[in-house]
Amino acid sequence: MGFFSKVKKLWGGNVATETPVEATPQAALETGSQAGQAVEVEPSPASEPAAEPDLITQPEAKPQTAELTQAWRDALSASLTSGRAKISEWLGILLSDISATGPDLWARLRFLFATLGAPKAEAEAFIAEFNAWATAMNLQKPEDIRSELRYRLVLALDLEQEQEERTSLFKKLTKGLAKTKARFASGLGALFGRSGGLDDGFWDELEEIFITADMGSEATQKLLGNLKTRARTMGVTEASRFREVLSAELEEIFPLLKKPKVASAPEVVMMVGVNGVGKTTTIAKLAYRARLQGRKVLIAAGDTFRAAAIGQLEIWAGRVGAGIFSKAEGADPAAVAFEAVDKAQREGFDLVLLDTAGRLHTKVNLMEELRKIKRVLEKKHPGAPHRVVLVIDATTGQNALSQTKLFHEAVGVDEIVLTKLDGTAKGGVMVSVAITHKLPISFIGLGEKMEDLRPFVGEDFAKALLGDGD
Question: What is the pTM of this model?
Fold first, then answer.
């Protein structure tokens, strides 16, 4: 369920009568107080009680005429009752004749939420938080405002699995896989275009293509075996039909993500990975997503061996509206984990995202330190950590595969977040990780913005890589 907890169905059926949401100052976010020897952080604009959105200092908006006001109201009302979600159409109406955040945009958002029957307090909180984020991140370009507003509405209204949003994400995925696809395209195109059957020469060429795409030798051999079996099952004997065999295999090769069993709040997610893979920003993006979905999030700065890591998380927590628990540099990481969960239990947090070290500046073994954290979490909160998430960098290719092996053997990885997919030709490592370790990929990084961490769908990956969705 999205941020608007009482909005059960967003289109079609009965919608609320036109009763614009009244403007009431709302605290944009709850960040929670520090605990233990926590480092105090100055609250960002997103973590303070928000000012009345209509009073925000913005470029002066031109007053709208009654005709213009009635025009967008009529258009939005018609779109909302058309029978399906049309997020692009809604945004087009909301942002028509608007080039900056300010009173006109807030009025339109209030009308949207009132028509949907969203709770007044949640609607005002949404507006206040969007206003605070736009100010803090200096969103001035219309395209940046549109992009941010789209992401927030998609998550708040639980539209991420709707076809329009899936199509939008597919286009972004296709763009992100462009370099990997280019490495595949020429070889596969020639292979699929050849005449004749699936002889030894065909399989040798396919093996070379997989190896050059950074799938690795072990994964390549397993994939080739699967493909030979699938080709026989599908009755495919000609090279010209092999694309459908490969597409079907890639669609099914990625394990499905399992929903964690959380007997009592908070859900505890332990984030692991070597330094430099983008773990800190991934934590921030995950916290941001959860916040926009209405969850109360606490970030725990468990990488106490790097002062920079602690400082970065404190800054990000303030920006995204999450709570933060941190202690002094050099503190016991297991103690941070224990006290963070204690704080989350006392203060009603739904989700704890625990950062951990990627390497240690001491003689202590990293993997043993991570195992210790897991033991402490289990004693403090039975069932925790509910998920161990490994962050790997797609640009490192086979190094990402070896990292997966080490972390999985040490602490039992539950899922993978793959970062920097948009800048690599080594996207084949996704297949390698999935087929070698049978671990699900939950999210992929397709850019630097908060909205660029998106859910991974194996079927869409296969289509984007092979060009089936072009």
Answer: 0.85
